[in-house]
Amino acid sequence: MMPLAQMAEAVLRTADGREKTALSRKLAAEWKAARADGHTPEIGTADPPMHPARPAQPELLSPREVPRRRPGSPQGRIALLHAVAHIELNAVDLHWDIIARFTHIPMPMGFYDDWVKAADEESKHFNLMCDCLEELDSHYGALPAHAGMWRAAEDTAQDFMGRLAVVPMVLEARGLDVTPGMIDIFRTAKLDSAVAALETIYAEEVAHVAYGSKWFHFLCGRDNLDPKDAFHTLVQRYFHSPLKPPFNEEKRAEAGLPPDLYWPLAVAD
Ligand SMILES: [Fe+2]
Ligand SMILES: [Fe+2]
């Protein structure tokens, strides 16, 4: 079996979305099988690209240029699914990137188990969103998408704790806040497969936020840092806007994020 960091790099260097996620799922299955057999596979090292390979479509636009969508219309619903597909493809790369980029920092095997599992689930989520788009006679790449998604990865490329703070504990936690409203939109439109897909995503994302919180707290313990202070400092350093309420306090708590961790960041300076 290839060292894990090299598996991660192979996914990051695959451009097509369906191919990237197929490779991601295949390698995650290999990892899982090796771990279930009691092996301790090699992590190794890799040279992850600063920007992962991506398909020629969708065209990436700055947030201001991405056309506004009205979620009540069929085109608006397609745009919403397309935006989620784009987020999921970025999430696939983000999880493999955290595996490949920080191998110089020794971590327990459980850290790698968690992010391989998260990357596998994001791959499934991307495919679910693509299936829903195709059911509506569209596809991933048919619309422009947000160019800023990889910014968090670039900003935290040198800061492991910053990466954990911003990606799972801010961005993926935000997903917990907004997904129930999206599910309602598709339920109202009676699009059952989109409802089911988003419910799967919603259920599985709680664990991704929890992995972030778990490993962030692990590192704070190892480095003798106060988790709340460290989180506030890192989010202010790397995330360039205040956090946006309303928060899904119940799901955030389930994922290990207490209100006093994020509420102080919700107010602009
Ligand atoms: Fe996801
Ligand atoms: Fe996720």
UniProtKB/TrEMBL annotation:
InterPro entries: DUF455, Ferritin-like_SF, UCP012318. Pfam families: DUF455 (PF04305). SUPFAM superfamilies: Ferritin-like (SSF47240). Residues 33-74 are annotated as: Disordered. Transmembrane segments: none annotated. This is Rhamnosyltransferase. It comes from Tateyamaria omphalii.
